[in-house]
């Protein structure tokens, strides 16, 4: 690791102001992703602002009937909350499908959303990578790309967003709240939070420098059956090849978001209109314009089959009910 | 420092400098602010309660909790396997919760209560999980064992507390200490000798005693 100085901020606005005012400063919450990257010198902050004292560790009911989740709520605490388990089961299921028990105990809600890609070329400082070092090129294109993006990618980057939790947040229409260095706040929908790589893959999301993620808000519950089906190379503790988050209603309508295929949780609302016609109709619309590599072409039919399995289970449960 | 070392550093500095120049020609305006200067190594004081004892340390800010335990406090039971949170050999409990001590900075743990394998039991008075690992041969080389045992103790606690897992079909249910549950929850602890089935037997015995 490169040397850095460290301090604990007292308020969200103070944390944001410190990071905005010091080149090379970064926030640290759980640290499970940032320290991993700092050890490899992929991240080299000169100053760390620890946000653990900001009292952002509560889950509260909102006036609109939803839940506001503090940015520092751990993945375990969020997945364990009785309201989340009952009303937003897709979120609990997505969280426990990711990482290990030890990591979920430390990783924060904000950190999970802000985690960086696990593209092997991003992680290898000897390789060109436009995300790690803008303008250096992309070794993943033409390289080993089995895990990487099949849709929404660019000539500069084919990395994926690696998380599970954010895929569930996308299907639940969650919003992210932030505070800026001047103390101003804003909300960003999950749809607009992560971005596609385009020519600037170094930017994973739409946050400004120094802008601090303070909470995530879930709208009021929408009912339905909740699914998170994750397909991966081993049964536990592995990143998704493809994952499907879905909420399916008794009349067969529903919502679907897909992980492991793009630079952001992938959802196409217009495709969901085809739910009553079956998984092929939905997947065809959802994955229209996919540009897989030879290594990861399997992901496109895998999305359809994983969604098909989810819709089959939903139908079986409806028949049994 | 020897002369040859100094030469190496200045040569490295030169290479870093020229790489930065090359990068600047292609970076967009938004990113082109000069790279911030890396500060000198910084030392801070941190006080933790480790296995019931108050310990104060002066550490480089870069020191992980694992290195503070092993190198500063000489509690070498916790092991460094991958140093990236993938193997679980460094698992300790902080405030009763298991974490990867390699992915946490010591300075982030001011005032925290840390329990390592040394705090669970002693050779004369083993923790029930340690005794069960011995009885069921829950190890071969032993390198992953302190992390396995810390994790196993915490897993039974998490099941009792009702923490959900990927092994549950219904996440609103109360979890039980079944084989599938314990296997799933132990997936962050790798054993290259492959003692998994014996570890599971040890955990099953302790879970049964506790129930």
From TrEMBL, chain A:
Alphabetic keyword roster: FAD, Flavoprotein
InterPro entries xref list: CO_DH_flav_C (IPR005107), CO_DH_flav_C_dom_sf (IPR036683), Diverse_Substr_Oxidored (IPR051312), FAD-bd_PCMH (IPR016166), FAD-bd_PCMH-like_sf (IPR036318), FAD-bd_PCMH_sub1 (IPR016167), FAD-bd_PCMH_sub2 (IPR016169), Mopterin_DH_FAD-bd (IPR002346)
Statement: the UniProt record of this protein carries the keyword Glycoprotein: no
Chain ranges of the FAD-binding PCMH-type domain: 1-223
SMART domains: CO_deh_flav_C
PROSITE patterns: FAD_PCMH
Protein origin, superkingdom: Bacteria
Pfam families: FAD_binding_5
GO molecular function, one term: oxidoreductase activity
Keyword Lipoprotein: no
Range of residues in the leader sequence: none
Name used for this protein in its record: Xanthine dehydrogenase YagS FAD-binding subunit
From TrEMBL, chain B:
Superkingdom of origin: Bacteria
Gene3D superfamilies: 3.10.20.30, [2Fe-2S]-binding domain
Keyword terms of this UniProt record: 2Fe-2S, Iron, Iron-sulfur, Metal-binding, Oxidoreductase, Periplasm, Signal
Transmembrane among keywords: no
GO MF: 2 iron, 2 sulfur cluster binding; carboxylate reductase activity; metal ion binding
Catalytic function, reaction form: an aldehyde + A + H2O = a carboxylate + AH2 + H(+)
Start and end residues of each 2Fe-2S ferredoxin-type domain: 44-120
Enzyme Commission number(s) from the entry: 1.2.99.6
Compartment(s): Periplasm
Any one cellular-component term (Gene Ontology): periplasmic space
InterPro entries, per the entry: 2Fe-2S-bd, 2Fe-2S-bd_dom_sf, 2Fe-2S_ferredoxin-like_sf, 2Fe-2S_ferredoxin-type, 2Fe2S_fd_BS, Aldehyde_Oxdr_Iron-Sulfur, Beta-grasp_dom_sf, TAT_signal
Coiled coil: none
Pfam families per record: Fer2 (PF00111), Fer2_2 (PF01799)
Subunit and partners: Heterotrimer composed of PaoA, PaoB and PaoC.
Its biological purpose: Oxidizes aldehydes to the corresponding carboxylic acids with a preference for aromatic aldehydes. It might play a role in the detoxification of aldehydes to avoid cell damage.
UniProt xrefs under PANTHER family: ALDEHYDE OXIDOREDUCTASE IRON-SULFUR-BINDING SUBUNIT PAOA, OXIDOREDUCTASE, IRON-SULPHUR BINDING SUBUNIT-RELATED-RELATED
NCBIfam families: PRK11433.1
Name used for this protein in its record: Aldehyde oxidoreductase iron-sulfur-binding subunit PaoA
Organism annotation: Sphingomonas rubra
Lineage: Bacteria, Pseudomonadati, Pseudomonadota, Alphaproteobacteria, Sphingomonadales
């Amino acid at each position: 690791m490169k040397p850095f100085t460290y301090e604990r901020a007292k308020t969200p606005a103070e944390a944001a102001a410190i990071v905005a005012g010091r080149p090379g400063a970064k926030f640290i919450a759980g640290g499970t992703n940032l320290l991993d990257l700092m050890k490899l010198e992929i991240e080299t902050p000169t100053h760390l602002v620890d946000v653990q004292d900001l009292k952002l560790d509560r889950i509260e009911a909102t006036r609109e009937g939803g839940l506001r989740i503090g940015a520092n709520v751990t993945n375990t605490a969020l997945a364990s909350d009785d309201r989340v388990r009952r009303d937003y089961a897709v979120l609990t299921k997505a969280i426990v499908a990711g990482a290990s028990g030890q990591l979920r105990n430390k990783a924060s809600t904000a950190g999970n959303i802000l985690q960086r890609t696990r593209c092997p070329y991003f992680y290898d400082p000897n390789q060109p990578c436009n995300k790690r070092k803008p303008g250096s090129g992309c070794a993943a294109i033409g390289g080993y790309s089995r895990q990487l993006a099949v849709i929404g990618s660019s000539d500069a980057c084919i990395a994926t967003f690696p998380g599970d939790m954010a895929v569930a947040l996308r299907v639940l229409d969650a919003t992210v709240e932030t505070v800026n260095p001047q103390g101003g706040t804003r909300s960003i929908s999950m749809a607009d939070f992560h971005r596609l790589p385009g020519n600037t893959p170094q930017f994973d999301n739409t946050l400004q420098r120094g802008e601090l993620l303070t909470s995530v808000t879930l709208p009021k519950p929408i009912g339905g059956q909740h699914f998170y089906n994750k397909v991966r190379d081993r049964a536990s503790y592995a990143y998704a090849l493809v994952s499907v988050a879905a909420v399916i209603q008794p009349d067969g309508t529903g919502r679907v978001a897909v992980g492991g295929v793009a630079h952001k949780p992938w959802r196409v609302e217009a495709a969901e209109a085809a739910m009553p016609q079956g998984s092929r109709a939905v997947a065809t619309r959802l994955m229209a314009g996919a540009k897989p590599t030879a290594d990861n072409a399997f992901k496109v039919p895998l999305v359809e089959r994983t969604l098909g399995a989810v819709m089959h289970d939903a139908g079986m449960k409806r028949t049994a009910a | 420092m020897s002369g040859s070392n100094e030469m190496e550093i200045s040569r490295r500095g030169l290479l870093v400098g020229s790489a930065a120049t090359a990068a600047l020609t292609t970076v967009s305006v938004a990113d082109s602010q000069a790279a911030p200067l890396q500060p000198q190594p910084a030392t801070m004081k941190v006080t933790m309660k480790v296995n019931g004892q108050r310990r104060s340390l002066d550490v480089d800010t870069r020191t992980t909790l694992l290195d503070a335990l092993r190198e500063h406090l000489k509690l070498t039971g916790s092991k460094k396997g991958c140093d990236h949170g993938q193997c679980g050999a460094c698992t300790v409990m902080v405030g009763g919760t298991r974490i990867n001590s390699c992915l946490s900075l010591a300075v982030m743990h001011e005032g925290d209560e840390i329990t390592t394998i040394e705090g669970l039991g002693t050779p004369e008075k083993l923790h029930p999980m340690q005794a069960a690992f011995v009885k069921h041969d829950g190890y071969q080389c032993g390198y992953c064992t302190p992390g396995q045992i810390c994790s196993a103790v915490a897993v039974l606690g998490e099941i009792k507390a009702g923490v959900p897992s990927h092994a549950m079909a219904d996440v609103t249910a109360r979890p039980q200490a079944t084989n599938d549950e314990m296997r799933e929850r132990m997936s962050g602890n790798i054993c290259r000798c492959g003692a998994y089935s014996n570890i599971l037997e040890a955990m099953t015995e302790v879970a049964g005693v506790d129930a």
